[in-house]
Amino acid sequence: MGTSSGSNINHQHMSKMLPPRQQQQQQQPGSFQTSLSLISLDPHTSPNAQEPRFNLDNIHESPTESASSRETWPTADAITAKKMVNGKTENDCTEQSVIRRVSNADKITLRDIARERVDVISEKMHHLPDEFLDELKNQLKTILEGNGGSQNREEFLILQKLVQSRSDLTAKTLIRAHRAQLEILVAINMGIQAFLHPNISLSQTSLIEVFVYKRCRNIACQSQLPADDCSCEICANRNGFCNLCMCVICNKFDFEVNTCRWIGCDFCSHWTHTDCAIRDGQICMGPSAKSGTGPTEMLFHCRACNRTSELLGWVKDVFQHCVPAWDREALMRELDFVSRIFRGSDDPRGKKLFLKCEDLLEKLRGGLAESMAGRSILMFFQELDTDSSTSLENGEGGGLIAPQEACNRIADVVQEAIKKMEMVADEKMRMFKKARLALDACERELEDKGKEVAELKLERQKKKLQIEELEKIVRLKHAEADMFQLKANEAKQEAERLQRIAHAKSDKSEEEYTSSYLKLRLSEAEAEKKYLFEKIKLQESSHTSQSSNGGDPSQILTYAKIRDLLHGYNIPSKTDSHPNERHKF
User: Fold this and answer.
1) Per the database entry, which stretches of residues form a coiled coil (predicted)?
2) Is the pLDDT of residue 236 over 70?
3) Which of 123, 348, 476, 504 keeps 20 to 30 A from 215, CA to CA?
4) Whole-angstrom distance, CA of residue 324 vs CA of residue 259
5) In 3-state terms, what secondary structure has residue 176?
6) Coil/strand/helix, residue 298
7) Whether this model's pTM surpasses 0.70
8) 3-class secondary structure, 263
9) Can you point out the beta strands (E) in 45-194?
């Protein structure tokens, strides 16, 4: 926090205007910037919390329990902007997924995931389609949103109790979990539906570390716990607490920056919501935080280190640096915060600030321009500084300050300045060490990336050689195919030639067979002719002898005619034969 003196504004005071993690977000163009409040289902909102606590009732809070004490998550616009920065849009996927039917035996429920063994569920989920897993996530989102009333509240309590009562969910077992299974377990344990969002993708290791409280559950922070190796009682004993982005009292976080909504401790750099500090009485009157003596003023008591920090100088620093960037609504909200902080102040300066804020709020509601209101509050802080300097010179009664008292006050101021300078130096040294470590990590990562690039180039060269080799093989196979086609054509032609030869030989053999057959039949016919001729001659001779003895002359005449016929019949020669004539015999 800053001091009441305008001369003491430094880098440390600027860093107190907003949580450190949110300072990083402000510097990153793709970071989430939103004030959308979602329901927090965090079971660890108190150091000794053992049972899960469903915070749907926080929707209807009192004015002091504003959105600053609830976790917030990026809106759809912020998520889309982040996607555009990464060069990814939802229209990148043009393929429609094919919905497959899942049998009842293969289906699993959220309760199955919450109570069954990790490896069993993981094995089942590997065989389930992505559409079914997305449906499971949407079911859990609906439960976490709490729109179903008491039924969703009871279902969430059952799921969270099942998960938190298991002793087998360790880093060693969760490493075997399916990606969707791990996201569902983390969302149930933390009560945060952002882990189910398709555009927010954490590594498997990060999800496991979030589940076992070794990493901040704030997706925009993701610091290793305890953050900055803090050894205070809260960071050491409160599971999942991150001092870089979470409130010491309510354990929650949001994405508000450049605001009086957060109060930081001057000594331990832990952060607290202004609403939470007011509600728990951490903002009250007390002796001066600089000297510990003198008039009382409005102070902030840090629960983490039990030290106090003054508030008026912090408010002045915030307004001096952030008023130009606030719009009308933001200025009215900040004035309302300051008004509630100094409402019970007994310090004259605190009372003046409270009345000034109330007056400006009324004027802004009446139509006063925010630029005029901003200039008015800045002039008021200058007047407070002038009044403070005058009171220091003249003392409380308006007289001169005793030399010893003046020396004591100067010594107190010098000691306070030295302390602040030492704190700033320590902070700078710590930041330097962190930056050095980050630089070394970047250099190592750059070196690793260089090796990966070299390996990729080598792999690319190998792939190129393999492709060339494959192209050569393809060309060779094409040449072989052409050669085999040519040989096939030649073989086809040869087969046709052989077929013609076979047909010719078949015709020749048929002719030879016919000729042989006719020749054989001719020989048989000649033999038969000879036999008949001889028989006729024999019979003729016998009949001649019989005729001389008085035989039948008609029979003799018949034999004579047969003999003449046999002599007159001309047997064809081999050259005159025809295949069709063989059937005459």
Assistant:
1) 432-508
2) yes
3) 123
4) 12
5) coil
6) strand
7) no
8) strand
9) none
